UniProtKB/TrEMBL annotation:
Main location: cytoplasm
UniProt similarity note: Belongs to the DapB family.
Complex formation: Homotetramer.
Gene3D superfamilies linked: Dihydrodipicolinate Reductase, domain 2, NAD(P)-binding Rossmann-like Domain
Name recorded for this polypeptide: 4-hydroxy-tetrahydrodipicolinate reductase
Binding-site residues for (S)-2,3,4,5-tetrahydrodipicolinate, renumbered to this chain: H158, G167, T168
Function: Catalyzes the conversion of 4-hydroxy-tetrahydrodipicolinate (HTPA) to tetrahydrodipicolinate.
Gene: dapB
Top-level EC class as recorded in UniProt: oxidoreductase
Localization terms from the record: Cytoplasm
Keywords from the named record: Amino-acid biosynthesis, Cytoplasm, Diaminopimelate biosynthesis, Lysine biosynthesis, NAD, NADP, Oxidoreductase
Catalytic activity annotation: (S)-2,3,4,5-tetrahydrodipicolinate + NADP(+) + H2O = (2S,4S)-4-hydroxy-2,3,4,5-tetrahydrodipicolinate + NADPH + H(+); (S)-2,3,4,5-tetrahydrodipicolinate + NAD(+) + H2O = (2S,4S)-4-hydroxy-2,3,4,5-tetrahydrodipicolinate + NADH + H(+)
Start and end residues of each Dihydrodipicolinate reductase N-terminal domain: 4-127
Amino acid sequence: MADMRLVVTGAGGRMGQTLIRLIAETPGMTLAGAVERAGAAAVGADAGRLAGLDANGVVVTDDPLALLTTADGIVDFTAPAASVEFAALAAQMRIVHVIGTTGMSAEDEARVKAAARHAVIVKSGNMSLGVNLLAAVVKRIARTLDEDFDIEILEMHHNRKVDAPSGTALLLGRAAAAGRGIDLDARSERVRDGHTGARGRGDIGFATLRGGTVVGDHTVIFAGDGERIEISHRAESRALFAKGALRAALWGRGRKPGLYGMADVLGLSDL
Ligand SMILES: NC(=O)C1=CN([C@@H]2O[C@H](COP(=O)(O)OP(=O)(O)OC[C@H]3O[C@@H](n4cnc5c(N)ncnc54)[C@H](OP(=O)(O)O)[C@@H]3O)[C@@H](O)[C@H]2O)C=CC1
Ligand SMILES: O=C(O)C1=N[C@H](C(=O)O)C[C@H](O)C1
């Protein structure tokens, strides 16, 4: 089979550059294009050079349309408004769209879901194998423990991160809520400040830390009467997210249109 032709969006960003480097060393795929926001400094640059490699002849553009006519997939770690537009383009072109972008509103999510009627969309708040395994374990523990155990999710990220709680924290919260058979949106405590009153029994709490260059740390705490279970994942490199995203792109090739998650890609959906 011919190489999968991938377009990286947000090419000048932290994940965009990591993806460009990883595509260059991964068999079965080719960098078909690199896209940045109109007006971004990276537009016009060589994508290889931008990512710290030798020049590869792929010039960063702010016009994805022409590129996508010859591409098999988009790998997209940008911003919510941008990802919603790329999803519509992926639907138009009937191609694969891997979305790592976090911080989407319910309206954004609905637009992505609509695009997935025509595109193969794989979307996850965290593309790493470790976090998706952790989510499966969290679901299992939450199913066993009753509301005597308070569930709290703690995350820490670098000081450039713009959304909170992280997409991963929400993914883990959804896994815990699914295990318990409750609706996360109705039962989460996402911010605490001032005289909050006692913790709501059965609620799922979130706490957010930001600082330095932390790639991504997550801990799920089950706090009971006199005992506590804590399970953590620490990402030491963005390469693990990029690796998962490229695995998702290859998995999506030739698949039926729909909205998928990393649990589907990794075969963890039954856990
Ligand atoms: N699911 C996962 O596993 C992971 C998800 N993420 C998520 O991915 C996203 C990006 O993270 P990160 O790389 O650290 O962020 P960066 O800010 O480093 O990169 C985002 C890039 O996207 C660009 N961009 C914004 N709008 C557009 C557009 N319309 N077209 C093309 N490019 C655009 C930005 O340009 P400019 O700066 O000029 O606006 C920037 O270069 C975040 O939402 C983050 O939470 C990150 C890591 C892992
Ligand atoms: O913005 C980041 O950096 C990350 N974002 C994702 C998230 O919101 O969970 C994944 C990872 O933790 C890094």
